[in-house]
Fold each of these.
Amino acid sequence: MDELISRTINTERPQFDTEKWKQKYPEEYQTLLSRASKGDSNRKPKILKAILKSPLTKISAAAVIILAVTFLSTHRDPGNQEQPRIVEVAKYPVEMMTAISLERAFRRGGIEAVEEQCKQAFKPIAPRLESSSIKQILAEFNGNGKISGRTRP
Amino acid sequence: MPGASEKEQSVAQKPDIVLVKAAVNGNAEGFTELCRRYYPAMVAIAHSVLGDRHLAEDAAQQAFAKVAVKLPQLKKESRFGNWLAVICRNIAKDIARRTENFHSTDDFSMAAAKSGDDDTTEVVRQAISKLSASARELVFLRFYDGMSYEQISAVLGISEQAINGRLRRAKKKMAGYLRRNGFGEV
């Protein structure tokens, strides 16, 4: 069988004639030569090409980027971080206690609880405003219950 | 010029992948060496489609012209032979459509009549024409220029085992055709 096929289709070995081909396709040949002057500039950078070529390197590159971003976001230089601003709430112990009590009331029941707290706080003071002297009122504010003869609840 | 012949020899000894890389960067010598190496295979592929040697040579040359321009688009240098074969096959099919000279039994019969071949050769031609396009291409590659399985593998991009199997099936089919047409055991 092999002999039969060989006899049927086996012909003279075709020879490539370079000069003839160049004359027949001058534009294509010039295009080929023009790449020599351009060199590698029209090709992608080697590192980028290597990364994009293999799926494994693609995944590795993505993992490195994710790790870097995570590290930067969690371990940023504390010196560069903006310090939280401290709000000056109270200068004196009494004011501080008032602020704490109002804050607790707010946490418990919001602004309604704060109002209720204020109402309760001012209730014992209100009737005495007419009869009490300024000295007594100030003493009440400073928490000295001995002067007025009463104690805070 | 002894210098030039030495240079030619060194280019001829280089593996395909090196020549392809050089050709991508515009090296004309590398490119023409690749053309010399793959020309017989490309003519065989085109001949299996067109059924005409001269048209097949035109198709192969046209394929090299296309490759000269599109070579930077080649992704894997190691697949050059297969890529070139695909281009050549498509060009041959285009030519066949244009010239309405699609490979057929009649074409083979006419070619045989013109060349004054004997009856056996004509029946073998007909048997080849009855094969599928891929099997016919394989038979042409193997017997046109006595290409090795390794060379065919580089051009078709299939394993040597697959080539062996396909070739065996093609020959079996041809033998069946010959038996039905009055030939004894072949």
Amino acid sequence: MPQSSFIDIKNLSVGYTSRNGKIIPVLRDVNLSITRGDSIGLVGESGSGKSTLALAAMGYFKRGLHVISGQVQFDGIDMLNIERNALQRLRGGRLALIPQNSGQSLTPNLRIGQQISEALRLHGDLPATSFDVGVIDLLSQVRLPDPVGLTDRYPHELSGGQQQRVAIAMALASNPEALLLDEPTTGLDVTTQAHIMELLRDLAKDRNLAMLYVSHDLGAIARVCNKVMVMYAGETVLTGSAKQVLLSPRHPYAHGLLVSIPRLNEASLPQALDGRPPMPSETITGCAFADRCKLADQTCHKSPPPLNHLETGEAVRCFHHDQIGQLNQKTEKSARSNPTAADKGTALSLANLAVSYSQPGLLSKLFAPQDTPPSTVDRITIDIKKGETLGLVGESGSGKSTILKTIAGMVPAQSGNIILNQAERLDMMVEKRPAAHLRQVQIIFQNPDDSLNPRHTVAQVLAQPLRLYYGLSGTPLRDRSIDILEQVRLGEHYLERLPSQLSGGEKQRVAIARAFAADPEIILCDEVTSALDVSVQAAVLDLLDVLKRQDGTTYIFVSHDLAVVKAISDRVAVLYQGRICEIGPVAAVYSAPFHPYTDALLGAVLEPDPDVAPRLTADDVVELSPPKTGCPFQRRCPRKLGSICETDIPTAQEIAPGHVIHCHIPQLDL
Amino acid sequence: MLFMLIRRVLLGGVTVCIVSLIIFAGVEMLPGDACTQFLGEYQADEELLAQCRKDLDLNRPPIDRFAEWTQGAITGDLGLAADGTTKISTIVGDRLKNSLLLAFLAMAVGIPLALFLGVVSGLWRDRLPDIIASTLAIFAMTIPEFVSATLLILVLSVWLGWLPGIVLTSAAAPASEFFPEILLPMIVLSFVMCAHIMRMVRSSVIDVMASDYVQMATLKGVPYWQMVFRHALPNALLPAINVVALTIAWLLGGVVVIEVVFNYPGLGRLMIDSISDRNLPVVQSIALIVASVYVCVNLAADLLTMIANPKLRTMYMRK
Amino acid sequence: MTVSSTSHQQEHGRFITVMKDILARPSGRIGLTLVLFHILLALLSPLIAPYDFKLQNSSLMLSPPSSEHWLGADHLGRDILSRTLMGGREALLVTGIATPLAVIWGGFIGILFGLVGGRVDEVLMRIVDAFLSLPWILKMLVLIVTFGTGIGVLIPTLTFFYGIPVIRVARAATHDIIARDFVWAAKARGHSRISIIWRELLPNVLDTLMVEGAMRWSWMLLAFSSLSFLGFGVSPPTPDWGLMISDARGFMSFAPWGVIAPVIGLSSLIIGINLSADALAKALGIDRAQKAPM
């Protein structure tokens, strides 16, 4: 690292004091140097301390945290012992932050224009009279449409992507020399995320910024950063150029992480990383990663490895970094189960399903009956074969969760039918379904914190389906519960635990166990991995696959993550605004010919590979409701034919057996 | 926006109607009526009772009497008291004026003080100003009003002799004659009011100061006090509107105890006296007035919140 | 070991955890000590009071504290110490019964409203709101004056009127919980309504109701002593702090001890309950909304 670094953090240790007086470290002896023109990606999961490090660069520590030791310097200025006025001038001035959740980070009572001109007033060079012009200029730089109209709006009136761009504009107001970004694209749609990454990439280049980009999303980091630092349990475990770290990582954790991320160009499930990251409050002897590491030996468990600086310019905290090659050999890509070989019949049939959330009030029903808004979900016709996994993929507003909830009977359908096992029609209301139907369809929710009753132990959670469907109690109940726990790789001692004593991954396993306890035909998975740490996601996917092979269960798997869906599904349906755009076997849908929306989605995916650039085809526009007539994608489609797209429902073109694209564009031109 | 306003006002009106129904029905269902109260020991005499009822027109069906009562109430004529001669409007009018005077003074002191103390104790959380203010507030909230009132009389009036401890002015006297006796009840009321509002404001300020947007403003380099006044307080004080409204409504209807302690001739005292005297028409009228004030104040609070909260404001204005 | 005994054990375990947490906080320690002290006092005072609380002695009227009468005598010559020691009995008895009853009936109705939802719920809440707009004193006095004072009237009256605000709290908590995923999950599994209410909803609403109950108790005590003060609560010669303060305040200028003793008694009890409620709320992780009492 060159001597005169712009941001220079040396041996920083930060922690908080627990109730019984112990000091709990959140950052342990971390070093970080950033020069102008550098974009450093800070990668880590929960408990890694990456957010704390980024905020520390600004001399800011959340309430309760304090510096144990170390230095933080910005352009030679000591940020830890600086006078308050000087600190205020620097923050938002030469050193600006783009926060994680802009929706929460913009002040609700001030208009957008006011907040940006505040930044100009505090740090910009413009005279007060030119603030308005300055604001509009900034909004245009972040490629927001209608900047003039936007200045009058309040933050809550903007979409997530727009809010994020406003935060970027606010940060740029002072012409900063360094930018800190704390997970700026969390919660945004795939296409929105891709557009914002491009914007950030261009900005970094144009202005020669020193950039620190914090994220758990390796794809985003690959796109924007030229150097990467991986953190684990409050320590740096690996640094190097983006290419070095992302393509040939020398630390087992980084290696495991990269291998566990599903990729678009792979056909099978990624290799899972066992265990979970340690929490700050846990005491660690030896290497923090030793419990989960395949290369670990006695030394690793006893003494913590130092940070080795290699000739290549990388730094690795591992005793066995030169044996990384062994990991590559040990990696077996698990071949996914292939149920289509034996066609066991249709498990579930959706026939022309339509669901609507909007309830027109009495007055509108009387005075404008034809003005009813279009259904949230419409024309859903899918046959799902026994034992297969159907992926439902789409962005926010695609209706994928709605379809799941309708199948589960939680949301009534306006019209259409759901047929179970080719014979029985499922009632729309879950209360009216007979016990047999109820048992056969089980649902797993996204957020394990919410889907388990905080007052129930694991034993009680599992007891519910077992008692309800099988009438078990006493010893047989307990034995079966232990059985099921074993299948999800949790020990017997988990029975007495409460959800608050479990990690996110463990809670999700309990939720999966609960679903499997009923021995259902069909399991509905609603974004079941989205709320989990990256290194834990692969393990959950693997578990789902193993269970499926055992029991032959049919899955309907909903996710916004295209790579995850590809890894686990046999067939995929791409949804936009509640209508099917394309459906077919996974390999076929993920390769040409594409529906224009599928093309836009796949192009926007950010791969954890610095050499791969996304293809942005559609604009970053969030639509609130589907159009009344015609194709749902008409307003954003870059290949719109003309008025036919607005008036007529797109024809279903069968490209190959089982592969259907709903589009007006003839097959040959797709 | 106008539509929402009208809707809220109508809802308020409906509430007042329901309240008047509850009051009327409640009073109807009680055993006995104005005549049994009035005649007292002569109740045994059936003839006298019948005559009295005829005189006071009590034999008409309840619905008619209810209609007449409400009609009168809207025009301001609340009818006659149990004795059949005194106009309720006159008695109640005086008392209402006095209660309003006391309430207004208490509000003028209590509300700004509460807001100030609440903000201070929220910003300096767990430090000396907060500890002092919060402890005092807890005392004021947990100790019954008559206890605080009595203690304050003991200290300020009996021992120190600074203020008179009792009000001897008559009900119909003009406002100026109530000074300086009105000061002590005003102090007690402000003290109690202040405590409730202050705690609420404090917790709201603490929440807002821990929010993401305050953190962002700090990291944007906004100087501390600018951040407090521009970013934090406008959001922190929003929930206070409702508490202030509730407290104002309480000031007019719930300060019975204070009025008794200080012998202040307000609505509360009248209410207790009328109940003791079984003067039910007066009781009905007071109940209606107090309920109406409550509804009006809540309506005002709702509207103020709608205007002040950008999320609600844009919902109705931008279409 | 069956699952049902696990849940018993779990509840027992949780109770211990919560108690430990409360006792770990200074507010909890002080609060619980005060409350327990007062309960013991109420139970034991007839045995430890030096004099009969009714005993009047005209020669001792308004006498200051002395070696025979540690706190002096009131305007009828009765021993203030004895009366003060016994002053909380009625109050604790009445409110001790009325509070749990109020929470039960208010909680029941509130949960019911919360589950019913829709138009019915809205209409009913309007009526509840309208009812709440009337001053509490008015409502209670009307009933008391009609049906007389005495425990038989006070308990039902307090129970009824103080249960109504509990309806709002229980309803709000119910709304919160039934929107959460684990309730949806139970519905999707096909559990019966009753089962969902009993297993999923209640354990989570109970925490809120317990904190609300503790707060209700302190407000009910305030109301009770205010009623006594106004002359509508306990009837003489029963010793009650509110009544004692009312009697003694006319003589405050020269015989303040008649006021100070009951004030200390009443205040310490109410503060104790409030501190305990505060500690309980923090131990359960509930954010207490600071509402003005009715």
